[in-house]
Specification:
Elements: H1 3-22, H2 24-37, H3 43-48, E1 61-62, E2 66-67, H4 74-83
Antiparallel strand pairs: 1-2
Helix pairs in contact: 1-2
Length: 86
């Protein structure tokens, strides 16, 4: 099984566990609230905007390589990304 397929399968299982624990209605409410406070950004429009477009992602571990770096705080990473223009 590919790493991506494992991630999708694991995410679906985790979502189902959350839905069973919270109930589907509560999960839907939480999703709606998340969209209200952090709306989906239009990906295509961002790519077509003038100037440099950058997507930044911080990963603590990789499905294939395991732990990437544990000696740095998330706040340090985010600040460094912001300084870099992300």
């Amino acid at each position: 099984m590919s790493a991506l397929r494992e991630i999708v399968q694991s995410t679906r299982a985790a979502l189902e566990r959350r839905a069973q624990k919270l109930g589907h209605a509560e999960l839907q409410r939480a999703a709606a609230e998340r969209l209200r406070t952090d709306p989906i950004r239009p990906f295509q429009a961002a790519l077509q905007a003038p100037g440099l477009t950058l997507i930044a992602e911080h990963k603590r571990r990789s499905p294939s390589a395991g732990l990437i770096r544990e000696d740095i705080a998330l706040e340090q990473v985010v600040c460094a990304y912001e300084r870099g223009g992300a």
